[in-house]
Design a protein that fits this description.
alpha/beta; Ribonucleotide Reductase Protein R1, domain 1; about 375 residues; 13 strands; Rossmann fold; five-stranded antiparallel beta sheet; OB fold (Dihydrolipoamide Acetyltransferase, E2P)
Length: about 375
Amino acid sequence: MTSFSLPLHPLTSYGWDDAWADEFAPYDAEGLLAGRVIRVDRGQCDVVTADGVVRADTAFVTPNDPLRVVCTGDWVAVEPAGNPRYVRSYLPRRTAFVRSTSSKRSEGQILAANVDYAVVAVSLAVELELGRVERFLALAWESGAQPVVVLTKADLVPDPATLGYLVEDVEQTAPGVPVLAVSASSGEGLDVLEAVLSGGTTVLLGQSGAGKSTLANALLGEDVMEVQAARDVDGKGRHTTTTRNLLALPGGGVLIDTPGLRGVGLWDAETGVGQVFAEIEELAKHCRFQDCAHVAEPGCAVLAALDSGTLPERRLDSYRKLLRENQRIVAKTDARLRAEIRKDWKRKGAEGRAAMEAKRGRR
């Protein structure tokens, strides 16, 4: 008996599945082409379709909201012909990696869409900045993707014991996150990373000089991304990658490489911050007061853990910093939250003045 199997869809290697096909059905009925955006540049985008890569204009789907513009990783409906041809719509995103821009207007900037894994590349050529790792992880968790921390340039740490300590430090900073030490030059750890990433779409994140482009080339098996040397003094590099590019990996899955991020602002990432600091969130459940700020309240389980040494002070300081930053960002677009913050400031100010007056009275 001969068995027959249906041929794979031409876009399967780029992440196409039955669920995307169902979402696209109305556009298919209109005669539009399905495709995935592999690059966006100034109102134009390259889209991989069953007919190959086409260039399309995004004028029809360019709203005022910067979070709704077409971005790398989107699945779109493209006109089958035309000069120019246009993207008519994009399918609802499963996940989206968003950061705050550096502008005073505090707008969100979407870096990648429909991502399964967010790889945070951290160079071992310089001293680890655990606070920056926590910041990247907060955004990664908030996006809906599974974070993975990759410690690049592991060959620069020849002592296995020292490398083990560094991995352990990051693991304690990243609960629930795989941490891999990798060397693109020696191949160390690449096989494990390739196995992790083979089942979906990965966005590669990190500072300039973190070795993202070198890592991308190693995963792709060829020199696709241009590589420049990092400065010896601080390990930072120039923006080798200037656009976000989506590329199919030879072992399965796709990779989105991004420009180096020198500034990584949170964008409505309270849930992500909570996941990065899961141990503090768990401790907070045992505080005497539900609205405990973990500053000086009696019965605070977080402060008790700090006093006992089970919670590092650096972790608590970082947690507070990211929560404050996120609150400021959200408050700029949420009038009710701004009012609540002002009310809280007034309350704390009144409590402080009352404490000072009581102190003077005792004197």
